Amino acid sequence: MKDRPVREGRVLPVEPNDFKTKNALYLPENARYDDLLTLSDDADIGKAINDAMELVEQQSAQLVGILPKTYTSFKNDLLRELLRIFNNKTLDEVGGDLIGRIYEYFLSKFAPAVASDDGVFFTPKSLVQMIVNVIEPKRGVLLDPACGSGGMFVQTGDFVNENGISANTTMTFFGQEKVEYNAKLCLMNMAVHGLNGIIKSGDEANTFYNDAHNLVGQCDYVMANPPFNVDKVKSESAYNAGRLPFGLSGVNSKKELSNANYLWISYFYAYLNETGRAGFVMAASATDSGGKDREIRKQLIESRSVDVMLSVGNNFFYTKSLPCTLWFFDRAKIDENRDSALFIDARNYYTVVDRTLNEWSIWQLKNLNAIVWLYRGETKKYSNLLEEYKKETTERLCGLYLLMENDLELLERFADPLRGIKAEIESTLNKASALQELYHLNGLLQKYTSVLNEQTKSLISYGDGLDKDEAKTYVQSVSKSISTWAQFKKAVSSNVESTIAEINACRTIIKEAKWLTEKFDDGTYQDVLGLCKRASLSEIEEKNYSLTPGAYVGVAPVIETEDNFPERMVEIHNELRALQTEANDLMDIISANFEGLGL
What we know:
CATH topology of the largest domain: Rossmann fold
Number of strands: 15
Number of domains: 3
Pfam families: HsdM_N, N6_Mtase
GO molecular function, one term: site-specific DNA-methyltransferase (adenine-specific) activity
CATH class of the largest domain: Alpha Beta
Low-confidence stretches: none
Strand content: 5-15%
CATH architecture of the largest domain: 3-Layer(aba) Sandwich
Shape: globular
Protein name: site-specific DNA-methyltransferase (adenine-specific)
Catalytic activity: a 2'-deoxyadenosine in DNA + S-adenosyl-L-methionine = an N(6)-methyl-2'-deoxyadenosine in DNA + S-adenosyl-L-homocysteine + H(+)
Structural class: alpha/beta
Mean pLDDT: 89
Number of helices: 22
Family: Belongs to the N(4)/N(6)-methyltransferase family.
Radius of gyration: 28 Å
Distance between the termini: 73 Å
């Protein structure tokens, strides 16, 4: 409203077309929370919400027949309470794509309930973000032939919009999804994020047998997380459907493919135009599989389109613990990289979310992306990232000072050791002219945390030993707004908790910045043992055309220290699980081969 034009002293009302320019859905009055909440107690709220869904669908051709309209199944009291929860001004004040974040949260929660055992599962956000970051979509045609709930489209839209371009005006999104339920999720997800797309579902969208959009050789970008290790694909139908520039992979005695991984890989390549890029998730075993797969892989490597191969560790998926590999094709690599490929082994580089789930943090995503930038000679992007690290660290520390001041005030007589450390942190920050000079802060922040915990325990012990009147006198001498020792202790604990959380955030950023600059300080790509390797075509040929990053990057020496011992134990545990998974995959392949021989 603040930007609305004024005519004859009157602010022009907002109209549906104004929403279209913002890539947003216009909601008629009867489809708004405020209107629905004014319904009388005896009204049929379920029917009113169903009608609201109809009105929303009328605003978007791609939503017609997609939104749920079964709200009459629920009681009025429940529906009214849900409407009240979402009609909350606090949600508006949070900012950003809040509804999209809520959607993604629930998507991750119900993924275990809807993901089946046929290789279909939802793609974690950090893997999608990594693919988008490396592909760098800007404008043109994007296809996801196994689009699921639409995560590739959503992240692409965010990436393009963040660069000051409207994704809906510069990108055309096409998707295929065999499971109609997932296709509906995709369309809703795109609508929530203000995106338009053409999504085909059902039998015509079975990518093994259909090119639903006729896009062979026409795509600027292909992104996908296809189902892994699918078997029983009819070889004749797949062959007749085309898109196999390197031929068909192995067929068994039943004229079926025992593993369709290389069907997908061939499709992704076939859809690209002469300058196209592809990024996709694939089972880790596909980088080194033999037989016809190896021959297809050899031709693919010799086409000089393989750009980057990135190994991902266990527990990145919501419902599966298996490792995987991210593949990246580029049909128009720079001349310096035309006869090589970049291999990155990131199996031991991640953030633990909980016991069963890992992810890449925003800074880890940036660091892995920086390796690709340097490999491509894009040193300016690397320099900008270092500046971003310095800016973020400085700004967070400035915000941290306010929490530290509260610590000193609340801890009072126990605060002297903290004052000295805080002064040293300020001095280091003020003298730092380069990012590397800020790394000393990590040790100081750790020291501050340790001393803060010690002094807080001393304060609590001191206060708990006072009688009621003494405690009240002490509290009043420190804070006029707190009257009891219990309230004061709660305030101290809350502030200390906030301080430590912010210190940990600062330390994480400093740690990731140090991880990057220790390896590529001057902004020039170099091979790093155990992490990355630029391998020539001849080197790949020597490895029997393997595309497994671990075969090229080697193993970095591990210097055991007290600090990295827990991390090393996690690495060892993950290596064991990876070997177990690989053994299971090999058993499946052996069983499939026996089946193909009719044994």
